From TrEMBL:
Keyword terms of this UniProt record: Ion transport, NAD, Potassium, Potassium transport, Transport
Domain (RCK N-terminal): residue spans on this chain: 1-117
Keyword Zinc: no
Pfam families in alphabetical order: TrkA_C, TrkA_N
The protein, known as: Trk system potassium uptake protein TrkA
InterPro entries found in the cross-reference section: K_uptake_TrkA, NAD(P)-bd_dom_sf, RCK_C, RCK_C_sf, RCK_N, Trk_Ktr_HKT_K-transport
Domain of life: Bacteria
GO MF, one example: potassium ion transmembrane transporter activity
Signal peptide from the UniProt entry: none
Single GO cellular component term: plasma membrane
Residue ranges constituting the RCK C-terminal domain according to the UniProt record: 137-218
Record organism: Streptomyces gardneri
Protein's UniProt keywords contain Repeat: no
Amino acid sequence: MRVAIAGAGAVGRSIAGELLENGHEVLLIDKAPTAISVERVPQAEWLLADACEITSLDEAALQRCNVVIAATGDDKVNLVVSLLAKTEYGVPRVVARVNNPKNEWLFNEAWGVDVAVSTPRLMSALVEEAVSVGDLVRLLRFSHGDANLVELTLPPESAVAGTAVGDVDWPQDTSLVTIIRGSRVLTPSPEETLEAGDELLFVAAQAREEQLEDLLQVRRETTES
């Protein structure tokens, strides 16, 4: 897979290093000569250019990229790069870094963004995830279809604890994608039984999040009249 990263700062270089380790082809683009540190990521391609300029993106052969990551520290630049990558070059997947949470609402399909990553939101979500059981935590927002990646740790008295995945009446527009049980990562087959303490990762429409949280909450006791 060929990946172009706009922004060769610490964030861009770190992403590049991870992708290269996984066998991907990476191009780092930055307009600041001081950011071109080939010795730090020698396996990557480097391009000294303004990623907001069509001529620069032509030189980068963006049309050959499977993914473009807009990882600069400037939200305006990241939006422009995302829009050009999607509309001018038809890049299948565009991921954009959100620096200021107040700008997060702009990072959507209209600007060519498939996935918006807000570091402040992600950090706060990870803090919430670490201290909360039974509360739905939004980890990532996908612009297509208004869907989010959400996590919930199943509380001991959950109504679905001990139930097979295939027997749960999941809300519409939600998909259980992973079960994390201790150190194991499980693919949720219909026969897999949910256990208290499981970390469940879903892709869910935002409108269904409250319904999903209610479904997974503590079992409600019924009293006979």
